[in-house]
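Dear colleague,

As promised, here are the two records you asked about, laid out in our usual form so they can be pasted straight into your sheet.

NAME FIELD: protein one
SEQUENCE, THEN STRUCTURE:
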Amino acid sequence: MKQIFTLFFLLYLSISYGQKNIYQSDKFEALSENHKILAIIPFFTNLDLKEKLNGNDLKSLEEREGYAVQDALETYFGRGKRRKKFSVDFQNTKNTNAILAQSNITYANIDTYTIKQLSEVLGVDGIVSGNLDLNILLSEGIPSDFSFIDYILGDANYGRIGIKVSDGETGKLLWKYEKEINKKSGRNTTDLIESMMKKATRKFPYDKER
């Protein structure tokens, strides 16, 4: 039994660590040389919940989760500026969302705009965006009922998140970090962002202390 437990534990570790992925463009330095301010936009969310919901309710929940990640990232970078130095500033998300609304850009249609268009509208040098695939409502917290057997059955996997930084002038992808969301990721959206960005912080390209 002990050997079986050890085998599953090692398997879990290999899967967990193998599913982290950090990408940085080889053109990052050239494209980001004059970057001074980035905007964080709401994340594109796809929910696959056990509970069946009508289309409008599902879209409303996806929007809520997308804005929750936007808020959590702003909180992280705000704390980060007090802990360490970034080479860029981050636009206040309330301002970001207000400017988008004034331009009739909503959560429902923001995906029809290019990075370059959004950067021009927001008056920033780059965009922080991303995708969120979830089978729970992360903003309400990760379920507390959990056992080791969940790892074996796959019930401990709650989805996946990808964070991207793109150049505003060219629209090119500069940096991307992807991570599976599971029981170890944190209790809620803020915990998740705090946890994953801490792991990526030494590779976050705008961190002056890298």
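NAME FIELD: protein two
SEQUENCE, THEN STRUCTURE:
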Amino acid sequence: MQTKELSLHHIIRPSQTTGKKTPALFMLHGYGSNEEDLFSFASELPEELCVISVQAPYSLPPYGYAWYAIHFDTTDGKWSDDEQAVASREKIATFIDEAIAAYDLDAGNITLLGFSQGTILSYALALSYPGKIKNVIALSGYINENILTEHYDREDHSHLHFYCSHGSADQVIPVAWARQAPPFLKKLGIDHSYEEFPVGHGVAPQNFRSFHRWLTERLAEEE
């Protein structure tokens, strides 16, 4: 499958199956990283998935990218540019629609896999536009209510599935922030799983195995 020119730069691992609409997994990397980072997982993900790893729109020299700016010189430690985050939320929503059309993907079977800032955007997109997303793998992030749409709580979230995980020794995003996700999702009636691992800001091998098993089970339910 040849990568097409769409509104966001991306790389692809095509689905290895044919004969039906293709389920897809969109990868959203963290602050200062790029589309190659999470793509290292691609070869080990279920073969029926079309895996699309997306590059964030804001350049962060010397070689990274960000979904929105973070200012570390404020009095409270750091400050997120929520306007840029909302803009990125909309860019991702548009890009997913483009990719569904360009690559003949199953619009009813879309998974997001985010890490850190990519997870924050995955939460924002799925909770704001639940009709676009089926599954979310939320690694080392948290829910920023300031970047959700105004009436997100009036949407139907009943079909969504979330796998959330965090490092108990994370020094970048406090685990206390991540622990707020389960009650938030429960209030919206969303099926979810939450796990912690004894690591810092990263994805441990046992974390990968856990979300891989979860994703495989979700895909099996669709068959």
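A couple of things worth noting about protein two: The chain is about 30% helix and 25% strand. The chain has a mean pLDDT of 94.

Best,
R.
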